[in-house]
Design brief:
The complex is a heterodimer of chains A (524) and B (267). By secondary structure, chain A is of the alpha+beta class. Chain A has helices spanning 7-20, 61-70, 118-129, 166-169, 237-245, 257-264, 294-303, 306-314, 343-352, 371-383, 397-403, 421-429, 445-454, 460-477; strands at 41-46, 75-77, 83-85, 88-94, 99-104, 144-151, 154-159, 199-205, 209-214, 228-233, 251-252, 269-283, 318-320, 359-366, 388-395, 412-415, 480-481, 484-493, 496-497, 514-515. Chain A has two domains: 7-21 and 30-236 and 506-515, D-Maltodextrin-Binding Protein, domain 2; 276-486, Dipeptide-binding Protein, Domain 3 (Dipeptide-binding Protein, domain 3). The chains are: A alpha+beta (524), B mainly alpha (267). Chains A and B meet through helix 5, helix 6, helix 8, helix 10 and strand 15 of A and loops of B.
């Protein structure tokens, strides 16, 4: 007979083991190895999106990157995308994952001097979850009902329903822990910081740069090694590459594949690639014609030669998709049969849907990142033979956010890798916990129920089976044409050491990154 | 009769060539402008693709030939719209004079003080990005300049004998303005309009370059330059082909306009 382990015992033990790894004395003390050199300034570049550094409200990869340096979460994800301690040194689940208790590290200081307390975590999550705050990622932290400080260093989260992946979700960018005095003025928080992270804010120019300095009292003693970091925005990738070539930039985040191939050929430079869950997909608004008819949605999906599209748009750097957002980078990944282009079947579907003479649709694409426009342009050509006359409109990113995104139109949506499958699925499909960007939930309540049930299941295999059912439905009937997942591509000079590219490239940990003596001497 | 001036001749010849290519594009372009040869992206000029291909493997020669159409259409259309707005305003202000002239000219001055590209940007931001809106925006931005030229020329003719004669024989004001004065201000208007076409094409290309004019995947020189910019390190051809065509066309209009001015004796 197989010995039975209760869910409660299992979670308790795993939480203790994970937490124990963070206790000083149980792991080798972090010392600066002989080869690792402290000091120096690192200059990182991005191509878009740096308008706020308010962790509760920020939405773009560049902003997440900047706040990762200035703040900490309760947990962070390791290379295997498992939650490991950050501000929390241990955690445990109770009541079938309905209650999660986090024990905070001792002696963590905010940049303005005060010591971290459980009330700060409570204040952060209370603000984040308050509908009046209107945090764009409020739904991503799960069904949190109540947050309480049990004592100075213990926080308890009570969920409305069991939520098995909460420790991983605690690592999302919008759950960075902010000092409670900073939360009093949300407007000021857009340009000031109240964090505990390895670096503290020196200068922030919206749309242009963030400059941070080393925080001497960081709780990971001896880190960070760098004296400071500058994050700069280069809206034009060609200018960004020129700056990199002249060593004005040490590390390029979010490279286009064409520039990636350029970086890889430069002597002394390295191109870094990692498979992730980043994608650009076309929303097919399913609450109105023509896409309220699944035959039309399927016809469009069948127009796409995904292999060719991946080769043409991302130099083959990625993984083919089948119209759902869960790549092999996620624990919940389920391999489904690939979808090949089938124009004959697509034409028949259009005929059956009464659109034998074709249909004209408007497709919006923000101008950044460039992959959005490319997907739109290539899709237009691939779908034309079947009778889709796609009228593409490319618009500025800010205008897209204000006038198109999540307004029920047909547009190219772009998402970076999220911490869990639950996070991206709820975000895209759920009408309350997420945005239901394809306006699909109302007509597919059973599929949405599958998502709600999956997040309550503690057994990973059972959970995966639930996700498998959902992903099949999404592939066959879903409101997204998702052709491929793009690898994360970064470029750096060889003098930048110890940098590990995460599948979520905005999850840029610089705590133990250092520069060799070959790094150019610079002041800013 | 004086011989053809070199500026008029060279400008006219290039313009005739551009016009002929744009009209003949459907017959001489080797490929459809949006046909993608994805396995032959960013190819240099060769036997199969005479000017090479862009980032989607589209034939640059075909796109450059067809790209002349929106450029010329936008340039001519915007200036025609500018004339439709500017000529009546300038004629009326110059002919009527007095307070109306003062009022109209102050408004025109205020609009002239506003950079025309900025004015076009404002109009497009309000209406949305499209070819039609770009044409409207550039046309409206051209109106005040043309109005001022027409008004100056009208002022000089207002007291001319043939105008006074027409008024003395009881002609209606509208007839005097359009039947008597307008044919005599036509020379400077034609010269001004020709020069403005070059600028209008450039403004249209600038708007497309900013993503506010012609939308992808249409073949348009400004849009082609915008898209090619990201690949300039990998292949210069997607940038060179539309850039050269644009430069030649604008220079041709300017040469032609200058030559026309010399020829017509307008100032």
């Amino acid at each position: 007979m197989t010995p039975r382990i209760s869910r409660r015992a299992f979670l308790g033990v795993t939480g203790l083991i994970t937490g124990a790894a963070a206790i000083p004395g149980l792991t080798p003390a972090r010392v600066l190895a002989q080869s690792e050199k402290p000091g120096g300034l690192l200059r990182v570049s991005v191509t878009f999106g740096l308008s706020t550094i308010n962790p509760i409200m920020h939405i773009s990869g560049a902003e997440w990157m900047a706040t990762k340096w200035m703040y900490n979460n309760l947990t962070r994800l390791n290379a295997k995308r498992e939650p490991v301690p950050d501000l929390a040194e241990s955690w445990s689940a109770g009541d079938g994952a309905r209650v999660w208790t986090f024990k905070l590290r001792q002696g963590v200081r905010f940049h303005h001097g005060r010591e971290l307390a459980a009330e700060d975590v409570v204040a952060t999550f209370t603000t984040l979850l308050d509908p009046k705050t209107a945090s764009p990622y409020r739904g991503e932290v799960g069904p949190v009902d109540r947050v309480e400080a049990l004592d100075k260093s213990t926080v308890r989260f009570t969920m409305k329903s069991p939520f098995s992946v909460f420790p991983a979700i605690a690592a999302v960018p919008n759950a960075r822990v902010v000092a409670r005095e900073g939360l009093a003025d949300m407007k000021a928080l857009a340009s000031r910081e109240f964090g505990t992270g390895p670096f503290k804010l020196k200068e922030f120019v919206p749309g242009d740069r963030v400059v941070v300095d080393r925080f001497a009292d960081y709780f990971r003693k001896g880190e960070p090694y760098l004296d400071g970091v500058t994050l700069r925005v280069f809206p034009d990738p060609a200018t960004e590459l020129t700056a990199f070539k002249s060593k004005e930039i040490d590390l390029i985040s979010g490279l286009t594949p064409d520039l990636f191939s350029q970086v890889a050929t430069l002597a002394g430079a390295e191109g870094l690639a990692v498979a992730g869950g980043t994608f650009a997909a076309v929303t097919l608004p399913s609450d109105k014609p023509p896409f309220n008819d699944n035959r039309v949605r399927e016809a469009l999906k069948l127009c796409v030669d995904r292999k060719l599209m991946l080769a043409a748009i991302h130099n083959g750097q990625g993984e083919l998709g089948v119209d759902h957002p869960v790549s092999s980078a996620y624990d919940a990944y389920v391999p489904l049969a690939p979808r090949s282009a089938d124009l004959e079947k697509a034409r028949q579907l259009m005929k059956d849907a009464g659109l034998a003479n074709g249909v004209t649709v408007k497709l919006f694409a923000a101008n950044s990142p460039p992959i959005r426009e490319r997907i739109a342009v290539v899709l237009k050509e691939m779908a034309r033979p079947v009778g889709f006359n796609i009228d593409v409109e490319v618009l500025a990113y800010d205008r897209y956010l204000a006038q198109v995104w999540n307004k029920g139109a047909m547009y190219v949506v772009y998402y970076a890798t999220r911490p869990t499958a639950d996070a991206i699925l709820m975000k895209l499909y759920h009408p309350k916990e997420g945005l239901d960007e394809g306006r699909w939930a109302a007509a597919h309540p059973n599929a949405i129920r599958l998502l709600e049930q999956a997040r309550e299941i503690l057994d990973p295999d059972r959970r995966r089976r639930h996700y498998a059912d959902f992903l099949k439905t999404s592939r066959d009937e879903g409101p997204f044409m998702l052709p491929f997942f793009a690898n994360e591509l970064n470029g750096k000079w060889a003098y930048v050491r110890n940098y590990r590219l995460s599948p979520s490239s905005s999850d840029m940990v610089l705590d133990d990154v250092w520069l060799t003596g070959d790094a150019p001497k610079k002041k800013t | 009769m004086s011989s053809l001036s070199p500026t008029l001749g060279v400008g006219g010849a290039i313009l005739a060539l551009v016009l002929a290519m744009s009209l003949a594009a459907p017959w001489i372009a080797p490929y459809p402008t949006t046909e993608q040869h994805m396995l032959e992206r960013l190819k240099p000029p060769g036997a199969r693709f005479l000017l090479g291909t862009d980032q989607y493997g589209r034939d640059l020669l075909s796109r450059t030939l067809f790209g002349a159409r929106p450029a010329l259409g936008l340039g001519l259309g915007a200036v025609a719209l500018g004339l439709a707005l500017g000529v009546p305003i300038g004629l009326t202000a110059g002919y009527v004079g007095g307070r109306l002239d003062d009022l109209v000219m102050r408004v025109v001055d205020a609009m002239l003080a506003f950079p025309s590209l900025l004015l076009a940007l404002l109009i497009i931001t309000a209406l949305g990005a499209s070819t039609g809106h770009a044409l409207l925006a550039i046309g409206v931005a051209n109106g005040p300049g043309i109005a001022r030229i027409v008004r100056s020329a009208t002022l000089a003719l207002r007291e001319a004998e043939f105008v006074l004669a027409a008024r003395a024989r009881g002609e209606r004001h509208l007839y005097v303005m359009f039947g008597e004065i307008f044919p005599n201000v036509l020379a400077p208007v034609i010269v001004e309009a020709t020069l403005r076409i070059g600028f209008a094409i450039l403004a249209g290309a600038s708007l497309s370059f900013l993503g506010l004019g012609v939308q992808p995947p249409a073949a348009d020189w400004g849009l082609m330059i915008r898209e090619a910019r990201q690949y300039v390190f990998l292949s210069p051809w997607p940038l060179l082909a539309p850039g050269t065509a644009l430069a030649f066309t604008i220079v041709a209009f300017n040469l032609f306009g200058d030559g026309l001015r010399d020829r017509l004796g307008a100032t």
